[in-house]
């Protein structure tokens, strides 16, 4: 009886694996490495902003020409000095202005010792067709009760090419 049991067990194992199939796939891995050309800008500088009060949220747009729009008559902003738009450095390769990828609203927070302010409405301008006078402007949002201090951060601007 033992002999028949062992033979039947071996027969079952043989028949259960005899009809099995194995599927396989061949896969390719690929990587393309490119080196980016570096183009540089001067700092996007909102200058020194003198406020009369900290009770209001304040938006200060900085144009591509470096002008900060504010209205002293509203009583919140007293003065802005030393502001300038970011300008493409002369030594840089000129990117195609249509292919610039700028940060989205709220993507850049300028960090200070005791708080943050937000950079928004980042935009590009160029008067010439070749983009050699490319500049960047933006708006900062200073929330009410923001402590006095210097607020700084860096961000990336990319240009894509076909």
Q: What's the quick description here?
A:
The chain is α+β, with helices and mostly antiparallel strands. It has one helix spanning 2-18, and strands at 48-51, 58-62, 77-81, 86-87, 100-101, 108-111, 116-125, 135-142, 158-159.
Secondary structure: elements and pairs:
Elements: H1 2-18, E1 48-51, E2 58-62, E3 77-81, E4 86-87, E5 100-101, E6 108-111, E7 116-125, E8 135-142, E9 158-159
Antiparallel strand pairs: 1-3, 2-8, 4-8, 5-9, 6-7, 7-8
Detailed description of the structure:
By secondary structure, this protein is α+β, with helices and mostly antiparallel strands. It has a domain at 48-143 and 152-159. Helix content is 10%, strand content 26%. It contains 1 helix and 9 strands, in the order αβββββββββ. Strands 2, 4, 6, 7 and 8 form a 5-stranded antiparallel β-sheet that branches. Strands 1-3 form a two-stranded antiparallel sheet. A hairpin with a 4-residue loop joins β6 and β7. The chain is elongated, with a radius of gyration of 31 Å. The protein starts with a helix and ends with a strand. The model has no long low-confidence stretch (mean pLDDT 83).
Tell me the helix content: 10-25%
Order of helices and strands: HEEEEEEEEE
Structural class: alpha+beta
Largest sheet: 5 strands, antiparallel
Strand content: 25-35%
The total of beta strands comes to 9
**What separation lies between the terminal Cα atoms?**
78 Å
Radius of gyration in whole Å, from Cα? 31 Å
Number of helices: 1
How would you state the average pLDDT, rounded?
Answer: 83
Please mark out the parts with pLDDT under 50 across 5 or more consecutive residues, or reply none: none
Shape: elongated
């Amino acid at each position: 009886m033992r002999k028949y049991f062992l033979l039947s067990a071996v027969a079952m194992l043989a028949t259960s694996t005899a009809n099995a199939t194995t599927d396989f796939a061949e896969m390719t891995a690929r990587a393309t490495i490119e080196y980016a050309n570096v183009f540089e800008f001067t700092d996007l500088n909102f200058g020194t902003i003198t406020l009369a009060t900290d009770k209001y949220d304040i938006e200060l747009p900085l144009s591509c020409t470096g002008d900060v729009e504010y209205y002293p008559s509203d009583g919140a902003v007293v003065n802005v000095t030393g502001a300038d738009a970011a300008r493409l450095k002369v030594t840089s390769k000129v990117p195609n202005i249509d292919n610039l990828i700028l940060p989205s609203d709220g993507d850049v927070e300028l960090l200070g010792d005791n708080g943050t302010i937000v950079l928004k409405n980042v935009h590009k301008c160029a008067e010439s067709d070749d983009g050699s006078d490319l500049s960047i402007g933006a708006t900062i949002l200073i929330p009410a009760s923001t402590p006095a201090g210097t607020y700084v951060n860096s961000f990336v601007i990319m240009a894509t090419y076909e």
